[in-house]
Write a structure and sequence with these properties.
The complex is a heterodimer. Chain A is an alpha/beta fold. Chain A has a single domain (2-109), classed as STAS domain (Transcription Regulator spoIIAA). Chain A is 46% helix and 28% strand. In chain A, helix 1 packs parallel to helix 2. Chain B is of the alpha+beta class. Helix content of chain B is 33%, strand content 28%. Chain B has helices at 19-30, 37-58, 91-94, 109-116, and strands spanning 5-13, 65-73, 76-83, 119-124, 130-136. A five-stranded antiparallel beta sheet of chain B has the order 1-2-3-5-4, with helices on one face. The longest helix of chain B has 22 residues, at 37-58. Chain A binds chain B through residues 18, 20-22, 24-25, 28, 53, 55-57, 59-61, 63-64, 67, 84, 87-88, 91-92, and chain B through 16-17, 19-20, 23, 38, 41, 44-45, 48-49, 52, 55-56, 103-106, 108-109, 112, 115-116.
Chain lengths: 120, 141
Protein backbone atom coordinates (compact mmCIF):
# COMPACT_ATOMS: atom_id res chain seq x y z
CA UNK A 1 0.00 0.00 0.00
CA UNK A 2 2.88 2.36 0.71
CA UNK A 3 6.27 3.07 -0.78
CA UNK A 4 8.91 2.28 1.77
CA UNK A 5 12.63 1.81 2.22
CA UNK A 6 14.80 0.36 4.94
CA UNK A 7 17.79 2.62 5.42
CA UNK A 8 20.14 1.25 8.03
CA UNK A 9 17.91 0.80 11.06
CA UNK A 10 15.30 3.31 9.87
CA UNK A 11 12.15 2.02 8.18
CA UNK A 12 10.97 4.98 6.11
CA UNK A 13 7.35 4.83 4.97
CA UNK A 14 5.87 7.23 2.42
CA UNK A 15 2.27 8.05 3.42
CA UNK A 16 0.12 9.72 0.81
CA UNK A 17 -3.26 11.27 0.21
CA UNK A 18 -5.99 11.77 2.78
CA UNK A 19 -5.60 9.93 6.08
CA UNK A 20 -9.12 9.74 7.42
CA UNK A 21 -11.61 7.09 8.49
CA UNK A 22 -11.95 5.81 4.92
CA UNK A 23 -8.43 4.40 4.90
CA UNK A 24 -7.23 4.32 8.50
CA UNK A 25 -8.02 0.65 9.08
CA UNK A 26 -6.33 -0.51 5.88
CA UNK A 27 -3.40 1.80 6.52
CA UNK A 28 -3.04 0.43 10.06
CA UNK A 29 -2.98 -3.15 8.78
CA UNK A 30 -0.56 -2.33 5.96
CA UNK A 31 1.78 -0.50 8.34
CA UNK A 32 1.63 -3.30 10.89
CA UNK A 33 2.53 -5.88 8.20
CA UNK A 34 5.38 -3.71 6.99
CA UNK A 35 6.71 -3.25 10.51
CA UNK A 36 6.43 -6.99 11.20
CA UNK A 37 8.35 -7.73 8.01
CA UNK A 38 11.18 -5.40 9.05
CA UNK A 39 11.92 -6.36 12.63
CA UNK A 40 15.51 -5.13 12.39
CA UNK A 41 14.32 -1.53 12.27
CA UNK A 42 14.99 0.54 15.39
CA UNK A 43 12.86 3.43 14.18
CA UNK A 44 9.93 3.92 11.82
CA UNK A 45 9.76 7.28 10.07
CA UNK A 46 6.38 8.20 8.60
CA UNK A 47 6.95 10.63 5.75
CA UNK A 48 3.97 12.93 5.30
CA UNK A 49 5.27 15.04 2.40
CA UNK A 50 2.49 13.73 0.18
CA UNK A 51 -0.26 13.62 2.79
CA UNK A 52 -2.90 16.14 1.76
CA UNK A 53 -5.24 15.79 4.72
CA UNK A 54 -5.30 14.21 8.16
CA UNK A 55 -7.95 14.21 10.87
CA UNK A 56 -8.29 12.57 14.27
CA UNK A 57 -8.95 9.16 12.65
CA UNK A 58 -5.66 9.38 10.77
CA UNK A 59 -3.81 10.54 13.86
CA UNK A 60 -5.49 7.80 15.88
CA UNK A 61 -4.08 5.31 13.38
CA UNK A 62 -0.61 6.80 13.86
CA UNK A 63 -0.95 6.67 17.65
CA UNK A 64 -2.08 3.04 17.43
CA UNK A 65 1.10 2.18 15.55
CA UNK A 66 3.10 4.15 18.10
CA UNK A 67 1.70 2.07 20.94
CA UNK A 68 2.64 -1.17 19.22
CA UNK A 69 6.13 0.06 18.39
CA UNK A 70 6.80 1.36 21.90
CA UNK A 71 5.93 -2.09 23.21
CA UNK A 72 8.76 -3.44 21.06
CA UNK A 73 11.24 -0.70 21.90
CA UNK A 74 11.05 0.78 18.40
CA UNK A 75 10.82 4.55 17.93
CA UNK A 76 8.38 6.38 15.67
CA UNK A 77 8.85 9.75 14.01
CA UNK A 78 6.90 11.90 11.58
CA UNK A 79 8.67 13.90 8.88
CA UNK A 80 7.89 16.33 6.09
CA UNK A 81 4.30 17.25 6.92
CA UNK A 82 3.09 20.27 4.97
CA UNK A 83 1.61 23.39 6.54
CA UNK A 84 -1.94 22.14 6.72
CA UNK A 85 -1.12 18.69 8.10
CA UNK A 86 1.37 20.24 10.55
CA UNK A 87 -1.36 22.51 11.89
CA UNK A 88 -3.63 19.54 12.52
CA UNK A 89 -0.79 17.63 14.21
CA UNK A 90 -0.22 20.69 16.43
CA UNK A 91 -3.92 20.97 17.30
CA UNK A 92 -3.81 17.43 18.61
CA UNK A 93 -0.46 17.79 20.38
CA UNK A 94 1.10 14.96 18.41
CA UNK A 95 4.66 16.22 18.93
CA UNK A 96 4.27 15.74 22.68
CA UNK A 97 4.28 12.02 22.03
CA UNK A 98 5.99 11.52 18.68
CA UNK A 99 8.91 13.59 17.29
CA UNK A 100 7.76 15.64 14.31
CA UNK A 101 10.48 16.80 11.91
CA UNK A 102 10.16 19.36 9.13
CA UNK A 103 11.79 17.00 6.66
CA UNK A 104 13.19 13.50 6.26
CA UNK A 105 16.73 14.95 6.29
CA UNK A 106 16.09 16.55 9.67
CA UNK A 107 14.73 13.28 11.03
CA UNK A 108 17.75 11.35 9.78
CA UNK A 109 20.30 13.85 11.09
CA UNK A 110 18.54 14.07 14.45
CA UNK A 111 19.07 10.36 14.96
CA UNK A 112 22.73 10.66 13.96
CA UNK A 113 23.11 13.45 16.50
CA UNK A 114 21.77 11.16 19.21
CA UNK A 115 24.16 8.40 18.18
CA UNK A 116 27.15 10.75 18.26
CA UNK A 117 26.22 11.89 21.74
CA UNK A 118 25.74 8.32 22.95
CA UNK A 119 28.38 6.43 21.04
CA UNK A 120 27.32 3.20 22.73
CA UNK B 1 -33.67 44.69 6.38
CA UNK B 2 -32.83 41.06 7.23
CA UNK B 3 -29.55 39.76 5.80
CA UNK B 4 -30.10 37.37 2.91
CA UNK B 5 -29.86 33.68 3.82
CA UNK B 6 -28.42 31.14 1.42
CA UNK B 7 -28.59 27.44 2.20
CA UNK B 8 -27.83 23.95 0.93
CA UNK B 9 -28.66 20.42 2.07
CA UNK B 10 -26.45 17.44 1.35
CA UNK B 11 -27.67 13.97 2.29
CA UNK B 12 -25.57 10.84 2.00
CA UNK B 13 -24.96 7.36 3.32
CA UNK B 14 -23.02 7.10 6.57
CA UNK B 15 -20.07 5.53 4.76
CA UNK B 16 -16.43 6.54 5.09
CA UNK B 17 -16.24 6.72 1.29
CA UNK B 18 -18.35 9.88 1.51
CA UNK B 19 -16.02 11.78 3.85
CA UNK B 20 -13.95 13.39 1.10
CA UNK B 21 -17.10 14.46 -0.68
CA UNK B 22 -18.60 15.95 2.50
CA UNK B 23 -15.43 17.94 3.19
CA UNK B 24 -15.16 19.30 -0.30
CA UNK B 25 -18.90 20.01 -0.54
CA UNK B 26 -18.81 22.15 2.61
CA UNK B 27 -15.62 23.96 1.63
CA UNK B 28 -16.70 24.68 -1.92
CA UNK B 29 -20.06 25.98 -0.76
CA UNK B 30 -18.39 28.19 1.84
CA UNK B 31 -15.76 29.45 -0.57
CA UNK B 32 -17.79 32.48 -1.58
CA UNK B 33 -18.09 33.77 1.97
CA UNK B 34 -14.69 35.40 2.34
CA UNK B 35 -12.85 32.64 4.18
CA UNK B 36 -9.12 32.24 3.65
CA UNK B 37 -7.81 28.91 2.33
CA UNK B 38 -6.65 28.06 5.85
CA UNK B 39 -10.11 28.79 7.24
CA UNK B 40 -11.67 26.58 4.58
CA UNK B 41 -9.26 23.83 5.63
CA UNK B 42 -10.47 24.27 9.22
CA UNK B 43 -14.06 23.87 8.02
CA UNK B 44 -13.09 20.70 6.10
CA UNK B 45 -11.43 19.27 9.22
CA UNK B 46 -14.42 20.09 11.42
CA UNK B 47 -16.80 18.50 8.90
CA UNK B 48 -14.56 15.43 8.71
CA UNK B 49 -14.74 15.04 12.48
CA UNK B 50 -18.51 15.50 12.64
CA UNK B 51 -19.26 13.12 9.78
CA UNK B 52 -16.74 10.55 11.05
CA UNK B 53 -18.59 10.53 14.37
CA UNK B 54 -21.82 9.67 12.55
CA UNK B 55 -20.14 6.90 10.60
CA UNK B 56 -18.49 5.36 13.66
CA UNK B 57 -21.28 5.70 16.19
CA UNK B 58 -24.70 6.43 14.77
CA UNK B 59 -25.72 3.20 13.09
CA UNK B 60 -24.10 0.10 14.59
CA UNK B 61 -24.27 -2.76 12.14
CA UNK B 62 -26.25 -1.00 9.46
CA UNK B 63 -25.78 2.03 7.23
CA UNK B 64 -27.92 5.11 7.73
CA UNK B 65 -28.33 8.67 6.61
CA UNK B 66 -26.21 11.70 7.32
CA UNK B 67 -27.66 15.11 6.60
CA UNK B 68 -25.33 18.07 6.31
CA UNK B 69 -26.99 21.45 6.14
CA UNK B 70 -25.15 24.60 5.28
CA UNK B 71 -26.44 28.09 5.69
CA UNK B 72 -24.89 31.49 5.37
CA UNK B 73 -26.11 34.76 6.65
CA UNK B 74 -24.12 37.97 6.89
CA UNK B 75 -20.90 36.09 6.21
CA UNK B 76 -21.41 33.60 9.05
CA UNK B 77 -21.45 30.00 7.97
CA UNK B 78 -23.50 27.50 9.93
CA UNK B 79 -22.83 23.82 9.35
CA UNK B 80 -25.05 21.21 10.86
CA UNK B 81 -24.35 17.49 10.67
CA UNK B 82 -27.23 15.29 11.71
CA UNK B 83 -27.97 11.61 11.94
CA UNK B 84 -31.01 9.58 12.97
CA UNK B 85 -28.95 7.02 14.81
CA UNK B 86 -28.54 5.68 18.31
CA UNK B 87 -27.83 9.01 19.93
CA UNK B 88 -25.61 9.89 22.88
CA UNK B 89 -26.75 9.20 26.43
CA UNK B 90 -24.54 11.80 28.14
CA UNK B 91 -23.48 14.51 25.74
CA UNK B 92 -21.39 16.37 28.31
CA UNK B 93 -19.40 13.25 29.12
CA UNK B 94 -18.96 12.41 25.43
CA UNK B 95 -17.59 15.87 24.72
CA UNK B 96 -14.73 15.44 27.16
CA UNK B 97 -11.39 14.96 25.41
CA UNK B 98 -10.19 11.38 25.11
CA UNK B 99 -13.57 9.78 25.66
CA UNK B 100 -13.83 7.03 23.08
CA UNK B 101 -15.26 3.62 22.38
CA UNK B 102 -12.13 2.03 20.92
CA UNK B 103 -8.34 1.89 21.40
CA UNK B 104 -7.72 2.81 17.76
CA UNK B 105 -9.65 6.06 18.17
CA UNK B 106 -8.63 9.27 19.85
CA UNK B 107 -11.91 10.58 21.20
CA UNK B 108 -10.85 14.07 20.14
CA UNK B 109 -13.55 14.79 17.55
CA UNK B 110 -15.63 17.15 19.68
CA UNK B 111 -12.54 18.84 21.11
CA UNK B 112 -11.25 19.52 17.61
CA UNK B 113 -14.62 20.78 16.37
CA UNK B 114 -14.80 23.19 19.30
CA UNK B 115 -11.28 24.47 18.64
CA UNK B 116 -11.94 24.98 14.94
CA UNK B 117 -15.31 26.68 15.08
CA UNK B 118 -16.61 29.88 16.59
CA UNK B 119 -19.33 27.92 18.36
CA UNK B 120 -20.44 24.31 18.49
CA UNK B 121 -23.56 22.74 19.91
CA UNK B 122 -24.39 19.05 20.22
CA UNK B 123 -27.95 17.88 20.63
CA UNK B 124 -28.68 14.23 21.12
CA UNK B 125 -30.77 11.72 22.95
CA UNK B 126 -30.72 7.92 22.93
CA UNK B 127 -32.69 6.55 19.99
CA UNK B 128 -33.25 9.97 18.50
CA UNK B 129 -30.06 10.72 16.67
CA UNK B 130 -27.45 13.41 17.06
CA UNK B 131 -27.07 16.88 15.60
CA UNK B 132 -23.89 18.91 15.70
CA UNK B 133 -24.16 22.58 14.74
CA UNK B 134 -21.04 24.64 14.18
CA UNK B 135 -20.59 28.22 13.13
CA UNK B 136 -17.66 29.80 11.35
CA UNK B 137 -16.93 33.40 10.48
CA UNK B 138 -14.09 34.71 8.33
CA UNK B 139 -11.26 36.30 10.27
CA UNK B 140 -11.97 34.11 13.28
CA UNK B 141 -8.55 32.55 13.86
Amino acid sequence: MFDWVLRGSDLIVDLQGELDLSCSERAAQALDSLIDANRGARRVILRMDRVTFIDSSGIGMVFGRHRRLVARGVALAIAGAGARVSRTLDLLGVSELIPVYASLDRALSAQEGVRKWNPR
Amino acid sequence: MEPKVNWARVEFESAAENLGFARVAAASWAAGLGFTLEELDDIKLAVSEAVSNCIVHAYPGRPGRVLMQLSASAQTLTVSVQDEGVGIEDVQAARRAGVTSSPERLGMGFTLMEALSESMEVTSSPGHGTTVVMSFAPGDR
